[in-house]
From TrEMBL:
Organism field: Salipiger abyssi
Domain DUF1468: start-end pairs: 12-144
Xref: Pfam families: TctB
Keyword set includes Electron transport: no
Assigned keywords, A-Z: Membrane, Plasmid, Transmembrane, Transmembrane helix
Keyword Secreted included in the entry's annotation: no
Name listed for the protein in its UniProt record: Tripartite tricarboxylate transporter TctB family protein
Length: 153
């Protein structure tokens, strides 16, 4: 693993600022409205501004009090979770809810070295069934349980 010297408070501040800017731009695509008639973009924009303030405070605090430490970047979990999310987004319509959730949760669970194949499989099965109950049965989501790639018509 690669070691990097970093000030964690400065890093957190920069991440907060980046997310705040992204969410602010997203909120500006919606109507902000006025103070008496709030639009759908007002609350997300206000939260983005609060996150921006928190980020600036963290950044300034980190720069004022240098606390540089060595951090090992955990590449395996980062890559596994990013790949799992990309897999989910690209296969949910073709595979359907259950198989996509199972494989996504399994890949994310295997990102942690402490998980075994059995624990990741059990976690994937339980979470997939729970998600199916919540989203498909409870909320009536329109995503097919098993998609067209698995079910022939």
């Amino acid at each position: 693993m690669q070691e990097v010297r970093v000030n964690k408070t400065v890093g957190a501040g920069l991440v907060f600022i980046a997310f705040a800017i992204a969410f602010a731009f997203g909120a500006l695509q919606l109507d902000l409205g006025t103070l008496s008639q709030l639009g759908p973009g007002y609350f997300p924009f206000a939260m983005a501004m609060l996150l921006l303030i928190l980020g600036v405070v963290s950044l300034v605090e980190g720069l004022r009090k240098p606390d540089v430490s060595t951090v090992t970047i955990p590449w395996r979990p980062i890559i596994m979770i990013v790949v799992a999310l990309l897999f989910f987004g690209s296969t949910i319509r073709g595979l359907g809810l259950m198989p996509t959730l199972f494989l996504t949760i399994f890949a994310a669970a295997m990102a942690d070295k402490r998980n075994t194949l059995l624990s990741a499989t059990c976690l994937s099965a339980v979470m997939s069934v729970f998600s199916w109950l919540v989203f498909k049965v409870g909320l009536g989501a329109v995503v097919p349980t098993f998609g067209p790639w698995l079910v022939s018509y």
